[in-house]
Amino acid sequence: MSGKSIILFIAFLFVTICSLNLAQQIKIDLQDLSKDADLIITGKVSQQTSSWNEDKTRIYTIATIQVEDYIKGAVAGNSVSVKYLGGEVGDVGETYSHIPTFVNNEEVLIFLKKNENKSDYSVLYGEEGKISLVNDSQTGELVTSSNVRVSSLKNQIKNYINE
Fold first, then answer.
1. What is the pTM of this model?
2. DSSP state of 149
3. 17's torsion region: left (phi>0), alpha (psi -120 to 50) or beta?
4. Which regions of the chain does DSSP assign to beta strands (E)?
5. Which listed site, 12, 35, 39, 95, has its alpha carbon 20 to 30 Å from 63?
6. How does pLDDT run across 115-149, given as a tens digit for each residue?
7. Domain limits at 42?
8. DSSP 8-state code for residue 100
9. Residue 79 belongs to a domain
10. Distance CA 159, CA 163 (A)
11. Are 71 and 37 in contact (CB under 8 A)?
């Protein structure tokens, strides 16, 4: 292999790797999330239950979210069940890339899509549809990890829904 061929091969690899990485980093914008979601809520994760599917080929977890605010849509009661791939059953654990996971007592803003069974929801667009929230130590207000106030985010979402 000549020196020119090696350089071309390395350039090809570099472009290919960068393209793949870029494809994985494409983000869904807030407007699409807002319009495509069946339900948008803020709330706190109160519990999680993992179990095998009927064929015992995959583990699913159902996280129960205590709803603090319905931004779009509503359900009867004050909790919503969110089903996602992965979890732990006995000594077996499964995780999946780009699938959001939850932590008990975690505050979240989530964009949800009704599942086919109509009894629970999935997070819309995978990890893009889940925003973890924390209390700002100075103001006490809920903010995102990038320090965006939840109240501002809610207003922006409501504007997109009403367009």
1. 0.81
2. B
3. alpha
4. 39-52, 59-72, 79-85, 87-89, 92-94, 107-114, 121-123, 130-135, 142-144
5. 35
6. 887 788 999 999 999 999 999 999 999 999 889 99
7. 28-161
8. -
9. yes
10. 6
11. no
